[in-house]
Design goal:
Oligomer: single chain
Structural class: alpha/beta
Shape: globular
Helix content: 25-40%
Radius of gyration: 22 Å
Strand content: 15-25%
């Protein structure tokens, strides 16, 4: 157990009950009858045994009668981290899944994204997606917006208003596509990216930051990629993009960037692979490319719903982990039809089993491992694991209070179950009805 940090602010509230989380060494660590205190700054002040209640209350200065006692079928877990989601595509989530990636972008995605020059439309969509993902237990989201700077700033403001931790990216794309008016020149993209970064940082939102966002290599010229690499370096910013999602895209990149040794090398040449980079998909990366990911500290976002829905490919997560590459999970709305990270967990397990069907020697992922990917793994992929991802003294209290037997919920408990069974049932069967409360940095953000 972790002793109180006496240097922190006064204790604001205390939970007593079961905690489930991950550490780098343990995919699932369970602490029954634990005390977890949160200070006035929203950080975890202590984690101790429940039997030490009187001693901890005296040393930390809280009233033992004021603690929140979790029920037997309840537990606290870290908030889930969506490492790849297109906020601007939320309006058509659950539809338009009948084409492969490149055709899908031109037919559905770009026409919808072009509408975000309308700030009222942007506000409506972005408000809904932030609220929905918070209800689904996403305490941190890495968002793609659109090429529109003012609408992208609006997404940052909405995330801050509702208390979600977020990385927000103004999309950059200077190659022509099939949709009139949904492109920008290289200079416009650079200038607007700089404006977006400056104005978002000037807001001084405590948990919302900009992320440099080249859409993907096929939508960007070499001069733009080079400039975005410089912008990210000069401002010490996160970077997000897509890589090796489907084979047609990989072939296209080879033709557009003949000087590059691989898709990964395209980004590497322009200083876009850093320890603050997260790349979505990676279904068709070679082992040599994964070595480059490890050497640069770049991460992958596994988006299995989208990979299945657009028939893009199946990422071998075990191979990625065996290469010691950081990896988190993403919903990839709207290529992925669900905005719930619980769906990402389930589809990750499904993808692992598909590989097992294809190769009986394949080592499938356990639910405990996938739980870690949805929480601590996501924070590592976004280089936020010093602040969030699990329960450690000094980290922000980003957490879900889960009631597996919530009235009217989707799970029926027949008998008393151990915490690991309750967690497995929640991951496989649960939904937002089981998520009683959501906290980000100690602030209760759900219920609204």
């Amino acid at each position: 157990m972790e002793a109180p940090d006496n240097s922190t602010a006064a204790v604001k509230f205390v939970f007593r009950g079961t905690l489930v989380h991950s550490t780098p060494e343990e995919a699932l660590q369970i602490r029954e009858d634990a005390l977890l205190g949160v200070d006035a700054d929203g950080k975890i002040a202590f984690i101790e045994d429940g039997k030490k209640l009187q001693d901890i209350s005296r040393s930390s200065g809280f009233n033992p009668s004021a603690i929140t006692q979790l029920e037997q079928q309840e537990f606290l877990m870290p908030g889930m981290i969506d490492t790849h989601i297109h906020a601007s595509q939320y309006s058509y989530a659950g539809t338009a899944l009948d084409m492969p990636l490149l055709q899908w972008l031109n037919t559905y995605t770009f026409p919808v994204e072009s509408r975000f020059k309308d700030l009222e439309f942007a506000k409506q969509v972005y408000t809904q997606v932030v609220k929905r993902t918070l209800r689904n237990g996403t305490t941190t989201a890495c968002y793609f917006a659109t090429i529109h700077t003012d609408a992208s700033l609006q997404l940052g403001r909405i995330a801050d208003d509702f208390g979600q931790r977020a990385l927000v990216g103004k999309v950059c794309m200077d190659r022509d596509n099939d949709v009139k008016d949904y492109t920008e020149t290289s200079q416009e993209s650079q200038d607007e990216t700089n404006r977006f970064i400056k104005e978002l940082l000037n807001q001084k939102y405590p948990r919302v930051k900009p992320v440099v966002t080249p859409r993907f290599a096929p939508s960007c010229t070499e001069p733009l990629l080079a400039q975005l690499g410089e912008i990210a370096k000069n401002n010490n910013l996160h970077i997000q993009s897509h890589i090796s999602e489907n084979l047609e895209e990989v072939t296209l990149v080879k033709g557009l960037f003949p000087q590059s040794q691989s898709y990964t090398d395209v980004y590497h040449r322009f200083n876009l692979l850093t320890n603050k980079t997260v790349m979505a998909h990676g279904c068709h990366l070679s082992d040599e490319e994964l070595v480059l990911f490890r050497e640069t500290g770049a991460a992958l976002s596994h988006c299995p719903n989208s990979n299945f829905s657009l028939c893009s490919g199946v990422l071998n997560v075990r191979n990625v982990l065996n290469h010691n590459v950081k990896l988190g999970l993403g919903t990839d709305v709207a290529g992925g039809y669900s905005s719930s990270m619980l769906d990402a967990v389930r589809r990750t397990l499904d993808a692992s089993k598909v590989l097992k069907i294809q190769d009986p020697e394949h080592e499938t992922l356990s639910f405990e491992e996938v739980f870690r990917l949805a929480t601590l793994g996501g924070s590592q992929a976004l280089s936020l694991d010093d602040r969030t991802g699990n329960f450690e003294v000094g980290k922000d209290f980003d957490a879900l209070r889960v009631n597996v037997a919530a009235p009217g919920g989707p799970i029926d408990l027949i008998q008393k179950e151990k915490p690991e069974i309750l967690l497995e049932k929640f991951l496989n069967l649960g939904d937002d009805r089981n998520i009683v409360e959501v906290f980000v940095a100690g602030r209760k953000v759900v219920p609204f």
